[in-house]
Amino acid sequence: MNNSQIRSLVLQELEKNKGKLALRPCWVARDFMPPGKRLGLTDKEYDVGKRGYICERWLVSETSVDNLVKEKNEGLSYLNIENENILLKDALEICKEEILGKVYSKYHKNLGRLLKIYDFGSRIFYHIHQKDEDAKKVGMNSKEEAYHFLDKPLGPHPETFFGVHTSIVKNNKQKEIFLPYLKKWEGEEILKYSKAYLNVPGEGFHLPAGLLHAPGTALTLELQESSDVMAVLQAEIDGLKIGKELLHHHVTKEAWDKDREEAVLNQIDWEANADPYFYENHHLSPQMIQETKTDGAWEEWVWYNTVKFSGKRLTVKPGKRFFNRENGVHGVFMWRGSGDVDGYSMEGQKVSLNESRDELLISSAKAKEGYEIVNTGNENIILYKFFGPDINIDNIPFIKHYE
């Protein structure tokens, strides 16, 4: 299919759906972690052979996965158009102004963010996402991210390790402590140099790039910059061996050949990792938006503290409605309940490998015009709206910084 044909089909879909695009579910496998099996698939469907197990679902995604075992277009969302296979990534490139908006598209080439549900049966390994200057050296973007813990069973390890003990950096012992561990590459005792915080449903954390973390087993909605860059510092999880190639997978060959394991330690923001007020400076709790609150519906900021991305949780009671107007293009994910979103019937918690009705992209024009969300079911709608860089700037809360 050529660009002209794609453009014609996408514009037809935008017109038919009044400025909205529906997406098919996008599943991501990992070969280095066990699945939590809370994504709604059958036991058999989680197992994808040499690729490992489906452990994540990426929502309204233009981001490619960078797994060691390659699968064509893994991580990229497809538009939900019958008998057609059009990538959202291609639709955005070809119909950029119509989706992103004329002004926004002058300064932003794409959506610039990714929302994912990650679902692991064990804690994720201790790792960092490289800062922009290091990520660019391997042709990738940096990855700032934020978590929101969902109301499903929390799994065996519902706590996330962040940073390092303050005294390590205060006494300049980073390389003395961590370098021997990385060279030896075995076990998981590296976590004893970090601090763990409980995964509380409805709450979360904001994490800039360069910070060490080992996320817990809560089913998590993670909003992040559009990237899959990382360096893994943990050799083993619950007896599962982690290949050492994940330590330097996103480190340049020149840096690795010159400094070996020390090259990764050089990418870590040690001062930020040793912040004695780490919890206070990174913890996210829902922030009520009083201006739009009604007896039947309310919005809360759940991803904030940065202009690189942001997001809200909307609750609508049964039989109630909410008129929604936003500053620009955004994704919509219905987690619970059922209802009508501007004429499109949506339902949470009902998904198959190839079909769902819980995921939309709202164009800039539709967002600014506004649209109505009506709860037609018997339980509260829980719906998440997520935004890319510079959509929300003056209207989002920021954490008061402790020093």
3D structure, described in words:
The protein has 403 residues and is α+β, with helices and mostly antiparallel strands. The protein has two domains: 25-76 and 111-284, Jelly Rolls (Sandwich), CATH 2.60.120.10; 287-387, Sandwich (Jelly Rolls), CATH 2.60.120.10. The protein is built from 14 helices and 26 strands. The chain has helices at residues 3-16, 43-46, 88-94, 96-100, 104-107, 132-136, 166-170, 174-184, 245-248, 253-259, 261-265, 270-273, 278-282, 364-369, and strands spanning 20-22, 26-30, 53-59, 113-118, 127-128, 145-149, 159-162, 195-198, 204-207, 213-214, 220-225, 231-232, 236-237, 240-241, 283-284, 287-288, 297-303, 310-316, 321-324, 330-336, 338-341, 344-351, 356-357, 359-362, 371-375, 381-387. Strands 1-24-20-26-18-17-16 form a seven-stranded antiparallel β-sheet. It has a seven-stranded antiparallel β-sheet with strand order 2-3-4-11-6-9-15.
CATH architecture of the largest domain: Sandwich
Domain count, please report it. Answer: 2
Sequence stretches where pLDDT stays below 50 over 5 or more residues: none
Q: For the terminal residues, how far apart are their CA atoms?
A: 56 Å
Determine the fraction of residues in helical runs and give it as a percent range.
Answer: 10-25%
- Mean pLDDT over all positions: 96
For the sheet with most strands, the description reads: 7 strands, antiparallel
What portion of residues belong to β-strands? Answer: 25-35%
* CATH C-level label of the largest domain: Mainly Beta
How is the CATH topology of the largest domain named?
Jelly Rolls
Strand tally, please? 26
